[in-house]
Amino acid sequence: MSGKLLKLLTDLKEQEALDFVKNALEKGVDPMDLLREARAGMSVIGQKFSSKEYFIPDLVYSAEILKGIVKILEPHLKKEEETERLGKVIIGTVAGDIHDIGKDLVVFMLEVSGFEVVDLGINVPVQKIVDTIKETRSKVVGLSGFLTLAFQSMKDTVEAIREAGLRDVNIMIGGGQIDEQVRGFTGADAYGKDAMEAVKLAKGWIGG
C-alpha cells in the first residue's frame, strides 16, 4: 500500500479518505489491504492520543471515519476476512464501580486494532468474569476501575480467577488512579496507563 489512506485517516480527512477507498476499489486494490491500512492508521491516531497530540474528540471522529471506510469495504470482503481477529479480550468495570468512559475507550481501541472484545459492562460481579473466561477461553482479561474501592474488587477478581484454576490468563488493570503499587496489590499481570498501552499489552500476550 502507498500509505495514502493511513495519512488521510491520521490527518482526520474524512471525505478524502472515503473517496480514496472508493477509487482504490475501482482500481482493483485488495479490500483487505485497505482495511489493514485503516487499522494501522488507527494505531497512529492512538499514539497521537497517548502523546496528547490528539484528544478524545479526535478519537471519536476517527472512529466515525473508520466506520465509513468499513461500510464501503464490507460488500467487497469475504465473511472470513471481515471477521479476521487477532484474538479475544474480556473487559469490564469491576463490581462496585460504574465508570465506563475509560473502559469504552479501551474497548474501541482494541476493536479497531483487530481484537474481538467481550465487553461485560459496568459493576461486573466476580463470578461473571470467571464464567466468561470459561465460556470464551480468552487469554486476556482487562479489569477497569476508577474508584479506590475498585482496587479490592480487582484483587478479589484475580483471586477468584486463580481459585477457578484459570490463572493462565493474562490480566491487565486500568483506571484513573491505577499505578504499579495497585497492580501489585491486586495481583494483576500489568496495568495500562491508557488505551494504547492496553492494546500494546494485548498484542504482546496474544500476538499480532
Describe the structure.
- It is a single chain.
- This protein is of the alpha/beta class and 208 residues long.
- It folds into 2 domains: 4-82, Methionine synthase domain (Methyltransferase, Methionine Synthase (B12-binding Domains), Chain A, domain 1), CATH 1.10.1240; 88-206, Rossmann fold (3-Layer(aba) Sandwich), CATH 3.40.50.280.
- It contains 10 helices and 5 strands.
- It has helices at residues 4-10, 14-26, 31-50, 56-73, 79-82, 101-112, 126-136, 150-163, 180-186, 195-206, and strands at 88-93, 116-119, 140-144, 170-174, 190-191.
- It has a 5-stranded parallel sheet with strand order 2-1-3-4-5, with helices on both faces.
- α1 (4-10) packs antiparallel against α2 (14-26), α2 (14-26) packs parallel to α4 (56-73) and α6 crosses α10.
- The longest helix has 20 residues, at 31-50.
- The protein is elongated and about 55 Å long.
- The two termini are 19 Å apart.
Blueprint (SSEs and pairs):
Layout: H1 4-10, H2 14-26, H3 31-50, H4 56-73, H5 79-82, E1 88-93, H6 101-112, E2 116-119, H7 126-136, E3 140-144, H8 150-163, E4 170-174, H9 180-186, E5 190-191, H10 195-206
Parallel strand pairs: 1-2, 1-3, 3-4, 4-5
Give a brief description.
The protein has helices at 4-10, 14-26, 31-50, 56-73, 79-82, 101-112, 126-136, 150-163, 180-186, 195-206, and strands at residues 88-93, 116-119, 140-144, 170-174, 190-191.
The biggest beta sheet reads: 5 strands, parallel
Output the CATH class name of the largest domain.
Answer: Alpha Beta
Number of helices: 10
- The CATH architecture of the largest domain is 3-Layer(aba) Sandwich
Enter the CATH topology name of the largest domain: Rossmann fold
Give the radius of gyration: 18 Å
> How many runs of DSSP E, i.e. beta strands?
5
Name the strands of the widest sheet in spatial order.
Answer: 2-1-3-4-5
Question: Could you tell me the strand content as a percent range?
Answer: 5-15%
Structural class: alpha/beta
